[in-house]
Design a protein that fits this description.
The chain is α/β, with parallel strands linked by helices. Helix content is 43%, strand content 16%.
């Protein structure tokens, strides 16, 4: 399949310009400017040609009308799916610590796990001409990818690696491998009727589950009844409700992997309410190893992810690129650690 015009552009050519749009549309730069700023002054046919060229190239109108080439804004755009989730607050702190030390401000946007909102935020932020942008994950709408490819600034995709080719720079972990590691751990501990609880179900959550299921299937231990997932936002309360659904469908379940720690906390509380002994009757494991996971009783077995380091590394890579450094390793896998505790 042929690449789009924006995909064929070299990143070294910088931002998509008004002249690029004019060339593709077959009109003058002045006509493009009129079509964008005073559309009534040009014909509908010309407006359509300019609009198609803008969309194909990912052109960002320069609202600030900068006159000095290469001028810096000393701002970094950061697009994340949640500002209230403790996972992302740790990532943000890592980004902030690097940016603030270098005199950069952060433009923060919350997508609420919406692909459409992510695309809208990226488009809005780019009109402010940040010096770089950090976005969450490798999956995004084609329109957002086109905008980022044509922006001519460093782009860092964080939280995950290994699933697809990044736009520019990439730092994170393999969620598929992490899920698989937890499944092997549970099998090695002797559990045989293992369930999975999932919520929110963004791409990273889906990959954790798929890695977990792949290992169970290879061991002949996969049972579709024991996979309980919902697109609802993840909460502690929801963890208890999902456990109820799991035990109703498969009451002999002897272990459960929750795709995040919040769900696992809810499972532990629900087990205590039902007088289910952990781990003697039901082993419980989570993901992300939040601070409370070592404090809850019983302490939670979880996959520890380097959240602060992800944010810090992403910002470091971006700053190095802005300083003209060559990034020899554009994709950085920070790895994970399985933290075994009392619950499993």
């Amino acid at each position: 399949m042929a690449n789009s015009p924006s995909q064929n552009r070299s990143r070294s050519k910088g931002r998509v310009t008004l002249s690029d749009v004019a060339s593709m549309a077959g009109v003058s730069s002045m006509t493009v400017s009129r079509a964008l700023n005073d559309p009534e002054r040009v014909s509908e046919q010309v407006r359509d040609r300019v609009r198609e060229a803008v969309e194909a190239l990912g052109y960002i109108p320069n609202r600030a009308a900068r006159s000095l080439a290469g001028q810096r804004s000393y701002s970094i755009a950061v697009v994340i799916p949640s500002v209230s989730n403790a996972v992302f607050s740790n990532v943000i702190k890592g980004i902030y610590d690097v940016c603030s030390a270098r005199g950069y401000e952060m433009l923060m946007g919350n997508t609420y796990y919406s692909v459409q909102q992510e695309s809208s935020l990226i488009a809005k932020f780019l009109t402010h001409h940040p010096d770089g942008i950090i976005v969450t994950g490798l999956n995004m709408a084609d329109s957002a990818r086109t905008l980022l490819q044509g922006a001519g600034i460093p782009v860092v995709q964080l939280m995950e690696v290994g699933e697809s080719e990044p736009i520019d720079l990439n730092v994170g972990i393999s969620h598929r491998d992490a899920g698989a590691a937890m499944a092997r751990y549970m099998l090695d501990k002797g559990y045989r009727h293992i369930g999975v609880l999932g919520a929110q179900m963004d791409h990273r959550a889906q990959r954790r589950i798929q890695g977990f299921i792949d290992v169970l299937a290879a061991a002949g231990r996969y049972d579709e009844r024991r996979i309980v997932a919902t697109p609802e936002p993840s909460t502690v309360r929801l963890g208890g409700l999902l456990l109820g659904d799991l035990l109703a469908a498969a009451p002999d379940t002897d272990a459960v992997f929750c795709i995040n720690d919040d769900l696992a906390y809810g499972v532990i509380y629900e087990c205590q309410r039902r007088h289910i002994r952990i781990p003697q009757q039901l082993a419980v494991a989570g993901f992300n190893d939040l601070e409370a996971s070592s404090c809850i009783n019983p302490s939670l077995t979880s996959v520890s992810t380097p959240l602060y380091e992800m944010g810090k590394t992403a910002a470091d890579m971006l700053m190095r690129r802005l300083n003209g450094e060559h990034i020899e390793q554009p994709v950085v896998d920070l790895g994970f650690k399985l933290q075994a505790r009392d619950s499993a």
